[in-house]
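Throughout our pipeline, every protein is held as a single compact record rather than as scattered files. The record that follows is passed on verbatim for readers who wish to inspect the format.
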Amino acid sequence: MLQILGLQPVAVKRGSKLREGRIDRMAHPLALLAALAACALAPAAHAAPPRVRAPAAPVVSGSYDSPLGRVEVRGDGTSFTGRLVAPAGPCRFAAGEEVLKGTLLDDSLAGQVRLCLTGPGCQPEAWARTVLLVAPGGLAGAAHVATGCSAPLGRSGGLTFGRVTRAAGPKAAPRARPPPPLPGGPPPVAAAASAPPSQARREQARALLRDGAAWLQEGNFERARRRFLEAIDVDPTLPEAFNGVGVTYRMRDDLPVALAWYKRSLAVDPDFGDAYYNMACVYALQGQTELALRYLQIAAVNGYATAEGIDEDADLSSLRGTPAYRALVKARL
């Protein structure tokens, strides 16, 4: 089952079936889904077959600014660790200490982050589970700490490591390539708009978002997508709009394109919980079990999804036989 933006439950037509979603996020929006199948032109009869380049591996190693201070991340291409070089923020760990460790799965770094905790009965510090999407601007994702404990995270567990750019030189860290334009939509989102949109533009974008959700409810995915893209043009800081475009592609079964849009919504706002759940669904449908479980765990433990909803979602059926899935559902009941 796919999820949308969260004002009220709606039924979304998909062929002869109905899928329930939520429209317009208020407090805890659960995400919309989508995908539209891409078409490929057959090569000419005597033309040489096109050369297909393998996608470049995500650039993880480098310097990052984080809630813990400046962190230097290094690895062997698969496993990575991050150490503090300039502590800052409330935790005040010592320089040289390890604060991040993880394994690269596709373009996600799955592992643990070291955090200081406050709250009754909380340990002073802990290693928290995290999943971070590797993007040109840095690492964006979420972490989970024990219930009742506070850590230097976003309102819903969001966590960002902003990549530090260095001047070109023999010792400069490899520079990440800018993301390609998203299919059917605007150019890649810049590290952020130079100035936040005005209140009037935010309201205009929200109105377009609601209109897109209404078209989605009617099963008109193309019109819905146009409204979501217009909302992005008005307010490029609106994660719901990027997620909404992804949902329209998911409803057309174009999983790679839907996934690209979900990732962009997460890059815009790591606290946007819908993206974690929707990405888990896509990864499950693609057979990428480990990634699906990682994103589903973050979605569940941070309150983006309920055990009942997870267990009834057909998109997650491939995960149900795994011990990790059963433990996750049991823990959320």
